Amino acid sequence: MRLKALFLATAAAVAGALLGTLPAVAAAHGSIEAVWAPRRITFFYQGFTTHYSCDGLRDQIREMLAKVGARHLEVREYGCTRLVGADPFPGVRVVMQVLVPASSVHGQKAGPAVPAHWQNVVLMPSNAGFEEQGNCELIEQFKQTFLPLFTTRHIRYGSNCVPHQLTLGTHLSVEVLMPDTTSARGR
């Protein structure tokens, strides 16, 4: 019995010591307190090289937004003029939530803070092939329209995009605020 009590006391002491170090470990690994903030946007694609159907644009935008950490994501076609095939100016309406630092919501109604970290996300790698490079105009418009809605840093972008031509060289990566894995479970 004494051995069991000693073991439990030792285990409790070790657990307490470890829990006490978690804030320091989190700070050392760049953990940030963040909250989910709502965002809404209407976007119309205008491109010369690659043309999208409304469904195609919706799926591309949804995939890219999910990659950069949007949650409660709703992407709907908007303003489309064709039921089938490429649309001249396909559009989407987006409703989502993105992480913002808790310190940036002074006086605003915000949900509970969640631990977050910076994560590098590659939306188009520098070694992308010709087929993927066809999305260069969409990548440029995504960078200009959607990335400002997120908390980002270290945007690495370059483009050799020429209308009506497929050229290599477009790339986009960004560090974005993402939830830690334990807080991502509620997604």
How would the blueprint of this fold be written?
Elements: H1 2-28, E1 32-44, H2 54-67, E2 71-78, E3 91-101, E4 114-124, H3 130-133, H4 136-145, E5 152-158, E6 171-179, H5 181-184
Antiparallel strand pairs: 1-3, 1-4, 2-3, 4-6, 5-6
Give the key terms.
single chain, 187 residues, alpha+beta, 6-stranded antiparallel beta sheet, 5 helices, 32% strand, disordered N terminus
Short description:
The chain is built from 5 helices and 6 strands, in the order H-E-H-E-E-E-H-H-E-E-H.
Question: Could you characterize what this model shows?
Answer:
By secondary structure, the chain is of the alpha+beta class. The protein has one domain. It has a six-stranded antiparallel β-sheet with strand order 2-3-1-4-6-5. The longest helix is centred in the first third of the chain and has 27 residues. The chain is globular and about 45 Å long. The N and C termini lie far apart (45 Å).
